[in-house]
Amino acid sequence: MDRINIVALMVLTCMQISNAQVNTPNGVAVPSSALFVYPNAGKYTNAQLQADQNAIQNGLYGPSCVILANYSRQYNCHGYAWHVSTGGNQICIDQPTYGGVTPYVAGANPSYVQGNYSGSQGKMRVRYSGDHSAVTTYDPGKFISKFGPGPLVKHNSTDVPPGYGTPSTYWTCNYAPPLTSVYLDGKLISGSFQNTTWGAHNMQIFWGLDPDTGPIFSSTAGSTIINNQNSGTVNFTFNGPSNNGGVSIAFCGAPRHSFTFFKPSGAKMQAYPNPVQDEGVISILSDSQEDIRAVNLDNRVNKMIKLSLLDDRQQVLQDYLPDGEGNQTTVKLKAGLKGAYFLKATFEDGTIQTKRVLIEK
């Protein structure tokens, strides 16, 4: 009767767990049939699990074993290595019977690809020749794995229960962790395109999953990386001379996210002398040699590259070659003009400004 009750409890619990949705980092569903729980019965009572944990701590499987977390029925070795260690909930994943690890490494959009272990790479996933999975650490030769319903243990690669076998294959991540928030100069931003000013900036990235490596920042045209700490923070300069620049973020060795920065549009141009109003109206005599100067007031770097005089039908009457230095251009209007005209200035960042010019005789 007790056995029947235990089996019924296991079936009921497994059915409850199977209704939960567990996905790989790339969003592929893990079969519900591969999800299970350990029963609170038989060799899995608290007393027995505690006794097993004490034996492990006392060197049952080797002197290297260090207990990192106490025993738990909530997750197992596969659950820890492939799901919990990336920030997922605690869950038991059955590999040999139901192929619970398979969606992580094979099929459509696998989240891990097979790689080579040098002995000191951290956060590679390890599949043993038996029914076991582990995660490598940056401590040479040391792995972290969950011993079934027992404790989470840091250990030498072979200091595991005999049935687990030996390390067989190593896997590195192949997924893009979701960005949970991004701050530019301390301000929360959204989207990949941002308006900001030229000069020095600081960006902080917070991501949802825990990848093997990264983030690694690299600059796109128009920006320069000053400090790349690989910690989610990067300092860079947005230095033009085009109207945009950017920062690319790589996880697991591949570009995953990018942000493009635009200098606020609207380069400002004034034309003077301007005795009438402050909107760029020019008053000069048609037969005079009075200078007319177009001035970029936005930023010295954003230089004027073209200046034209247009009539009221927007036909070009005269083109001027702006000065190559500084942010001020001086041109002389030809004689014989009277009435309303327009100065059209084009700046390096592609911005175009037009100012109305009133020429009086």
Search tags:
361 residues, mainly beta, seven-stranded antiparallel β-sheet, 4 helices, disordered N terminus, signal, Por secretion system C-terminal sorting domain-containing protein
Specify the biggest β-sheet.
7 strands, antiparallel
Question: What is the end-to-end distance?
Answer: 113 Å
Structural class: mainly beta
Give the fraction of residues assigned to helices.
10-25%
Number of helices: 4
Computed Rg: 33 Å
The proportion of strand residues reads 35-45%
Structure write-up:
This protein is mostly beta strands. It has four helices and 25 strands. The protein has helices at 2-18, 46-57, 77-82, 102-105, and strands at 35-36, 66-69, 92-93, 112-115, 125-128, 133-136, 142-146, 152-156, 167-173, 179-184, 187-189, 193-195, 199-207, 216-220, 223-228, 233-238, 244-251, 254-262, 269-272, 291-296, 304-310, 316-320, 328-332, 339-347, 352-359. The protein has a seven-stranded antiparallel β-sheet. Strands 11-10-13-16-15 form a five-stranded antiparallel β-sheet, with no helix packed on it. Residues 1-20 form the signal peptide. This is Por secretion system C-terminal sorting domain-containing protein.
